[in-house]
Amino acid sequence: MKGVVIAVLLMVAMVQFMAKPGVEATVTCPQVTSALAPCLAYLTTGAGTPPPLCCSGLGNLQKMAQSPADKQVACNCAKDAAARVPNIKEDAAASLPAKCNIQVDFPISKNTNCQE
After folding, report:
1. Coil, helix or strand for 109?
2. Inter-CA distances, 40 with 53, 64, 109, Å
3. 11-54 pLDDT, tens digit each
4. What is the distance between the alpha carbons of residues 59 and 15, in angstroms, rounded to a whole number?
5. pTM of the predicted model as reported, rounded to 2 decimal places
6. Which residues 6+ apart lie within 8 Å of 114 measured at CB?
7. CA distance 46 to 32
8. Which of 13, 22, 50, 82 is the most buried (most CB within 10 A)?
């Protein structure tokens, strides 16, 4: 369950900061999973609002993923984690940035293409 939440959050952060080839990433999948784990309950139920730890984890993930390579790694890690949790609500994932007051320029989805 933690993997799904982290995967969705990472997707959001990584899509926003797409990676370019030639730069080595420093973000790891365990970091991404840890940052997004507090969002799991919200992402699987879509009920209420995300907990404060979820939003702070999303914010921390965005700060960690600054280079294009880090963004791509985070996106792929989040996507992989989301794939392990089949009951993630797409509408909850899409609304997460707005509910956390974090600006993103793309829809959040476990179907995100992290290569673009």
Report:
1. coil
2. 11, 20, 15
3. 444 444 444 445 577 889 999 899 889 999 999 999 999 999 99
4. 14
5. 0.73
6. 11, 14, 15, 18, 19, 72, 75, 76, 79
7. 21
8. 13
Amino acid type, 30: P
User: Terminal CA-to-CA distance of the chain, rounded, Å?
Assistant: 27
Tell me the domains of the chain and their CATH numbers: 26-108 (1.10.110.10)
CB atoms inside a 10 Å sphere around CB 96: 26
**Quick one: tokens of 101?**
């007051």
Residue with tokens 């009920």: 47
Give 95: exposed, middle or buried? Use CB within 10 Å, 0-12, 13-18, 19+: middle
Residues whose CB falls within 8 Å of the CB of residue 105, separated by 6 or more in sequence, listed in order: 16
Contact predicate 9/35, CB 8 Å: yes
Residues 6+ apart with CB under 8 A from 80: 3, 7, 29
